[in-house]
Specification:
12% strand, 191 residues, binds adenosine monophosphate, single chain, 5-stranded parallel β-sheet, Rossmann fold
């Protein structure tokens, strides 16, 4: 039977800090019936629980830099093995480097799966800067916000070209009302 429950989507949300990925991931998960997997949230949770993983990543997270690829591979591999990810998933915040993109391909291939789409939320630089100023968490110093943006440019933005070359990139104008963006992404993923 073909129905909503059978629909599987395996997609990644990509974009700069402040592009709205987290918000869209939650909305899309509800609309599409697959889990939103946010590595940032998983790590923040580990830090809050003071788990061994949390203690390992706390410092690097506070600096705005990236947790190392090997550790992230373990985190994501375990999460994708959970039953709710069998029918599909939306990854929010992973991959963030080219080696992570390769790891993801490998993890999926091992399960006989592959990535179907990479939604790239495109938001102009000046909007990102304005949002960063508005959203700044109490413990985010300005240089940490700036470091996150730089880390994105240096380590994550190359993924845009990487996935475009593979025909997976779905660019979406992210400088619009939230609901419009969600509808656009749902249409793109279903199309
Ligand atoms: P986020 O909420 O996605 O902005 O993630 C918050 C922080 O968690 C980042 O600034 C990184 O330090 C860390 N983090 C989250 N996802 C990853 C990832 N895929 N690779 C490395 N570090 C990550």
């Amino acid at each position: 039977m073909v129905g909503a429950l059978d629909h599987q989507i395996r997609a990644v949300l990509l974009g700069a800090p402040g592009c709205g990925k987290g918000t869209q991931a939650q909305r899309l998960a509800a609309a599409l019936g697959v889990p939103a997997i946010s590595t940032g949230e998983m790590l923040r949770d580990a830090v809050a629980r003071k788990s061994p993983l949390g203690e390992q990543v706390e410092h690097v997270m506070a600096s705005g830099r990236l947790v190392d690829d090997g550790l992230m591979a373990e985190v994501v591999s375990e999460r994708l093995d959970r039953p709710d990810a069998r029918r599909g998933f939306l990854l929010d915040g992973y991959p963030r480097t080219l080696p992570q993109a390769e790891t993801l391909d490998r993890l999926l291939a091992r399960r006989g799966e592959r990535l179907e789409a990479v939604v790239y939320l495109d938001v102009p630089e000046e909007v990102l800067v304005r949002r960063a100023a508005e959203r700044r968490r109490a413990d985010d110093r300005e240089e940490v916000v700036r470091e996150r943006l730089e880390v994105y440019r240096r380590q994550t933005e190359p993924l845009v070209a990487h996935y475009r070359e593979r025909g997976l990139l779905r660019p979406i104008d992210g400088d619009r009302p939230v609901g419009e963006i969600t509808a656009d992404i749902v249409a793109t993923l279903r199309g």
